[in-house]
Each structure stands twice: as C-alpha cells, then as structure tokens.
TrEMBL record:
Residues 23-130 form the DUF4174 domain. This is DUF4174 domain-containing protein. It holds the Pfam family DUF4174. The keyword Signal applies.
Length: 134
C-alpha cells in the first residue's frame, strides 16, 4: 500500500516536463527528495526506496514528493540540470532534500533514514508553522 502511494505521487507529475520544470512547479507547494543513482538495480537506491515506501503516510503529511533520477533513464536536459544545480558527480548514489522555498536543505551520498529526514523537516520553521508547533 505505501509503495503504491509513492508510485501515485510519481505518476502525478507530467513526465513530459524536464526535471527543472517539475521542480519549479513544486516551489512553495512541496518539499522534494531527489534520489539519484547510476542504475535502478543499485543497492543504495533500492534501500532508499524501501525506507520511503514504508513511511508513505508520513511522506504525504509533510507535502513531500520523491523524484527518482536514474542516470540510465535521464534525458540530456535532466542530466545537465542535475550537474549544474546539484553539483553531483555521476556514478554514485546521491540524495537531496529541497525545501518548499526551493533551496537544498540536505545532501547525502548514502541513503537517508526516514527518522533523520523527518527530524530535519520537522525542525524547519515552515513545517513547525504548518503543524502549529513552535
């Protein structure tokens, strides 16, 4: 069921748009996790997807959207955007959290546990305002 939620989130995006356009459309609406890997079969990628699929409800509660960027499936425009905006080095796993303001809040070259991700999000002033916690 939780995996289905993540799949539905991915389907909600217009895949005709470039990665840059999709990210622009989410500013001030959603927090975004971008998960990059060279191949979908990478163990770190699979682990990150597993962890996120297990906490689908918490992902949705935080207005969080997940975008998978598998190098083998990226368009030239998307690969260029990743390199320019995120300063990533191809051929290894990378995880970015982008806040609703469009700014990068977390970068990791290892899978990020949900409790670490949610702890960071929940400490952000915008999230505290959303939940009424100060």
């Amino acid at each position: 069921m939780n995996a289905l939620i993540l799949i539905i989130c991915a389907v909600c995006f217009n895949f005709q748009d470039t990665l840059e356009k999709r990210l622009e459309k989410m500013v001030w609406k959603n927090r975004v996790v971008v998960v990059y890997c060279p191949k979908a079969s990478d163990a770190e990628f699979k682990l990150q997807k597993k962890w996120l699929s297990e906490v689908g409800k918490e992902v949705m509660e935080r207005d969080l959207r997940v975008i998978d960027c598998v190098e083998a499936n990226l368009s030239a425009d998307d690969a260029l955007h990743l390199k320019e905006r995120f300063k990533y080095t191809p051929n290894h796993f990378c995880f970015w959290l982008i806040g609703k303001d469009g700014e990068i809040k977390l970068v990791s070259n290892k899978p990020v546990k949900p409790e670490q991700l949610f702890g960071l999000i929940d400490s952000m002033p915008m999230r505290r305002a959303e939940t009424g916690k100060n």
